[in-house]
Amino acid sequence: MNFILLGLGLAVPEDYFTQEEAVLGAAQLGQPNDVEPERVKLLYQRAGVQKRHTVLGRAFIEDLLAGTRTSLSAFLPGPLDGPTTGQRMAAFAEHAWPPALSAARRALQHGNVDPKTVTHLVTVSCTGFAAPGVERKLIEKLGLPATTERIHVGFMGCHAAVNGLRVVAGLAAANPDAVVLMVAVELCTLHHCYRPTLERVVANTLFADGAAAVVGRAGTDGWRVAGTASILIPETDGEMSWTIGDHGFTMTLSRHVSEAIRTHLKPWLTTWLAKHDLTPEQVGQWAVHPGGPKILDAVAEAMSLPPDALDASRYILQNYGNMSSPTVLFTWDRLRKTTSDAPCVMLAFGPGLTAEAALLMPPNSSAP
Predict the structure, then answer these.
(1) pLDDT tens digits for range 295-320
(2) DSSP 298-339
(3) Quick check: is 345 in a domain?
(4) Is residue 106 part of a domain?
């Protein structure tokens, strides 16, 4: 018996940067000493993100672009390398729960699930810490039982929603009566690097804020998580990292990540899919986390995918940016609305360098 996905909900903050605003804002927040402004602008264009939502709000964006301080935001340019980690965590505690709550409500409504029947709550985030945190707000605001069992998947990076699906599937397998709600929320814009190196400029060009939730139970009727898989790619521990500093969390993203994906992805996925009596060619949908254009290109090349196979991933990157863990669920939501029912591989990458995958099987499918 597998975990059946009854409902899916998505949410983003109301306010956002356009591509032009993001470039202008980056210039205000700090330019690297060794990179010309025109090259920074080119990097933003190559990232392919036309719109990125942020919890920092329209007043902050207008202040940033105009060089004013009417919003009194701690995230406006100052003498330091941006806000302290404490200030960023205070912002996370204030702003993370509203999009998480919106996504959770939509998932429950989509799945026609009574909040009072939820037995387990799994939260996912790598961009903030607070205790009590998002999970308490969700229990109170949604009206979940006070006895709801809680698990947090923390600081695992962009692939963490797949880790979360592994947790909810395990909970459902251990307790067939369980109703499990998973909520992933990330506020990546809180961690903009104000004095970036070239690598950190690349990270600045990609990230955005958002939340996604799924609710489900054990069963056989509906879209189901048929299996998950993980690989720690050897000799890549320095290629992607996410570390806590005095002025926020710092992303390191090496140009060698794409080559590691090209080399290691297909052998691993082919072996894993064979355990489910599938070949890569039989996978009809690829919900690939859009970590950036080069990562999507590397996946397409490694798996010999047709030109339109990653259109959903590219659409999400263009219109929402890289929201870290929720993003792969945004991608799957677009796929399920625009393609026929077919086996789906959900795939994401994160620090390690690690790849995580989930196999989603459509209703009435017979594959194990």
Answers:
(1) 999 999 999 999 999 999 999 999 99
(2) HHHHHTT--TTTTHHHHHHHHHH-B-STTHHHHHHHHHHHHS
(3) yes
(4) no
Q: Which residues of 74-93 are buried (b: 16+ CB within 10 A; e: fewer)?
A: bbbeeeeebbebebbbbbbb
**Locus of tokens 């302290």:** 84
Alpha carbon of 265 to those of 52, 90, 226, 256, 289: distances in Å?
A: 29, 38, 20, 14, 14
Are 218 and 110 in contact by the 8 Å Cβ rule? The answer is no
Structural domains of the chain, count: 1
Looking at residue 292, which CATH number applies to its domain? 3.40.47.10
* Per-position DSSP letters for 58-103, written without gaps between them: HHHHHHHHHT--TT--TTS--SSSSS-HHHHHHHHHHHSHHHHHHH
Q: CB–CB of 210/99 below 8 Å?
A: yes
Q: Is the previous residue joined to 32 through a cis bond, with omega within 30 degrees of 0?
A: no
> Residue 285 is part of which domain span?
224-361
User: Tokens 């990179």 identify what position?
Assistant: 35
Catalytic residues, by residue number, are: 158
In a domain, 32, yes or no: no
What pLDDT digit, counting tens, does each position of 266-281 carry?
999 999 999 999 999 9
Residue 164: inside a domain: no
CB 353 within 8 A of CB 339: no
Cα(156)–Cα(160) distance, rounded to whole angstroms? 5
Tens digits of residue pLDDT in 33-49 = 666 788 888 999 999 99
Indicate the pLDDT class of residue 255, thresholds 50, 70 and 90: confident
